[in-house]
Task: structure prediction
Amino acid sequence: MSEPVIPQKAPYAVELEEGKKYAWCTCGLSAKQPFCDGSHKGGEFSPILFTAEASKTAYLCGCKHTASAPFCDGTHKKL
Result:
């Protein structure tokens, strides 16, 4: 498996709505970071789908190397 593109080495602060479904980009090619816009089509990556458990500010991974996808775990500090 190839490595994803790193759109930024910092998390994206986003406002999530409780119960709403989201698709987090894993390839790094989406123009709508950190969310998927379908840019992965034809490649080996697929978005991670998740439903927000609460309405809150969340920090979604921008480097695409987190071990706790889609949330930032600080891995970007080691890249």
Q: What stands out?
A: The chain has no helices and four strands.
